[in-house]
């Protein structure tokens, strides 16, 4: 029995080889870059440092994020459903969208570019995000004061206007309601059935 076992052992080893496994590969091997710099602070026997307790970076910060996220729901729907455009409502909507986007991108920077590993890149990414946020705020301010505003602008992108939204009969029966998110725009278009009225 032992002789039989040893007789089949080399064959079993030679059946599965890297060349045979590679033959079943359907895609090219992915060459990923080297890992980022590995930083070890202290020794393996030292406890992990505990960050100082701060409510502004803890529960208050989390509550503020949730409040902004929840507030975006009525803020994005109300101007389009009501049909009236208010500069104050436009400004509040723009501010909430920019704050919500800034918090999300800041979390990405914190997670993927940690300061303990990237001493120079992390502060640069943080300040680049702040600069981009300030630029967006300035652009929206110019758009609000010198143009039609974000709500009216989105209605025009969707193919409607405030007058068309308030009077669907004057726009071939179309009622435009636009829902805004920081990254994408979705248009919900309710069409009035005009074929039945034509038959009558």
UniProtKB/TrEMBL annotation:
GO BP of this protein: mitochondrial electron transport, succinate to ubiquinone; tricarboxylic acid cycle
Q: How does it sit in the membrane?
A: Multi-pass membrane protein
**In the UniProt record, which is one GO cellular component term?**
mitochondrial inner membrane
The record, for PANTHER family, names: SUCCINATE DEHYDROGENASE (PTHR13337), SUCCINATE DEHYDROGENASE [UBIQUINONE] CYTOCHROME B SMALL SUBUNIT, MITOCHONDRIAL (PTHR13337:SF2)
User: One Pfam family for this entry, by name?
Assistant: CybS
Q: What is its main location?
A: mitochondrion
Binding site residues for a ubiquinone: 112
Q: Which residues bind heme b?
A: 100
Query: Which superkingdom is the protein from?
Result: Eukaryota
**What are the subcellular locations of this protein?**
Mitochondrion inner membrane
What is the name of the protein in this document?
Succinate dehydrogenase [ubiquinone] cytochrome b small subunit
**Keyword hit for Nucleus:** no
Please name the InterPro entries in this protein's record. CybS (IPR007992), SQR/QFR_C/D (IPR034804)
Ordered alphabetically, the record's keywords are:
Iron, Membrane, Metal-binding, Mitochondrion, Mitochondrion inner membrane, Transit peptide, Transmembrane, Transmembrane helix, Transport
In which family does this protein belong, per the annotation? Belongs to the CybS family.
The Gene Ontology terms for molecular function here are: heme binding; metal ion binding; ubiquinone binding
């Amino acid at each position: 029995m032992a002789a039989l076992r040893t007789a089949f052992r080399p064959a079993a080893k030679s059946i599965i080889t890297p060349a045979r496994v590679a033959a079943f590969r359907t895609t090219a091997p992915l060459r990923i870059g080297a890992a980022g710099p590995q930083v070890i602070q202290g020794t393996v026997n030292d406890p992990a440092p505990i960050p100082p307790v701060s409510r502004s970076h803890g529960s208050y910060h989390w509550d503020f994020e949730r409040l902004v996220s929840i507030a975006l729901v009525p803020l994005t729907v109300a101007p389009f459903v009501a049909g009236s455009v208010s500069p104050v409502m436009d400004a509040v909507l723009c501010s909430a969208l920019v704050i919500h986007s800034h918090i999300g991108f800041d979390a990405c920077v914190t997670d993927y570019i940690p300061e303990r590993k990237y001493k120079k890149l992390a502060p640069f990414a943080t300040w680049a995000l702040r600069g981009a946020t300030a630029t967006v705020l300035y652009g929206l301010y110019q758009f609000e004061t010198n143009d039609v505003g974000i709500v009216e602008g989105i209605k025009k992108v969707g193919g409607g206007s405030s007058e068309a939204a308030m009077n669907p009969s004057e726009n071939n029966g179309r009622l435009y309601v636009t829902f805004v998110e920081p990254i994408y725009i979705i248009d919900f278009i309710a069409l009035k059935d005009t074929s039945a009225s034509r038959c009558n």
